[in-house]
Amino acid sequence: MDNAVRLMQVGGVVAIISVVIGLFSKGTIHDAIVKANESATATKKLTASEIDSLTTVSMVSAVVVGLIAVALWFWMASVNGKGKQWGRIVATVFFVLSVLSLVASLARPESVLTRILGLVQLIVGAAAIYFMYQKDSSEFYRASSAPRM
């Protein structure tokens, strides 16, 4: 179980790195929006002001989602480290959602570094899930949730 908790903490650190990179990716986001705008029909083209606004909204959204991810990684590490049975289930659901999110992100323009960090988080999450479902971990959850006398 210790390995799973450590991996969740590593996932939180990787998520922090992703947030920091998100803060410095304004140019990349702007360029992706401009490129998408170039292929839009004449009636749906964005103005320069709309492109700037969309860039800002995209950056803020990415940072907010990233900070939520950081909080979830560390929260799941804490909950599972305490042997809360429901924490293992919630962590598994979050992992499935992260897989779906990574697949969906393939349709969006993102920097190579962002994709790599997303893949690293997925691998860390998969390893944490693996360790959480080992026999020793299951015994830890059982012992932690057993009524105390």
From TrEMBL:
Keywords: Membrane, Transmembrane, Transmembrane helix. The chain crosses the membrane at residues 7-25, 54-77, 89-107, 113-133. This is Uncharacterized protein. It comes from Nostocoides japonicum T1-X7.
